[in-house]
Amino acid sequence: MRRGGIPIKKNADDAYVGVEAVIDKDLTSSVLASDIGAALLVILTAVPQVYLNYGTREQRALGAVTIDEIEALAAQGHFPPGSMGPKIEAVIHFLKHGGRRALITNPESLPQGIEGRAGTHVVGRI
């Protein structure tokens, strides 16, 4: 099942009309990257990498993880919907639809992230 697209509904005249909606930019980017056959998805955010227990004394940065690891962490509730959740969902979608690697980082760390020296890297099943 595909998600995304332009939000529409049928009106009283049985014609399609657009409706106001929020379109998630991360998932949209993931779908587009999958559709064009991209090997790498980069998601830029406000922090240099993904963290477990973000904002607590137990905060821990994630460097490189597999899709299986990130799915397990998501299932444990580490990535809430109003925070890193949509980015993680987009990465999982991308990797399950042909992508090889995803990078989550901030703009300042992007050059080092592309080289594998910064950010959180998620790879498909190995």
What do these coordinates show?
The mean pLDDT is 92. 29% of the residues lie in helices and 21% in strands. A hairpin with a 5-residue loop joins strand 1 and strand 2. It starts with 7 loop residues before the first strand and ends with a strand. The protein has a four-stranded mixed sheet. It is globular. With 126 residues, it is an alpha/beta fold.
Topology at a glance:
Layout (H helix, E strand, L loop, with lengths): L7 E3 L5 E3 L6 H11 L4 E5 L6 E2 L7 E2 L2 E3 H9 L9 H12 L4 E5 L4 H5 L5 E4 L3
Parallel strand pairs: 3-7, 6-8
Antiparallel strand pairs: 1-2, 4-5, 7-8
Helix pairs in contact: 1-3, 2-3
- Give the strand tally: 8
- Low-confidence sequence ranges: none
| Terminal residue distance | 25 Å
Radius of gyration: 16 Å
Task: Give me the secondary-structure category.
Answer: alpha/beta
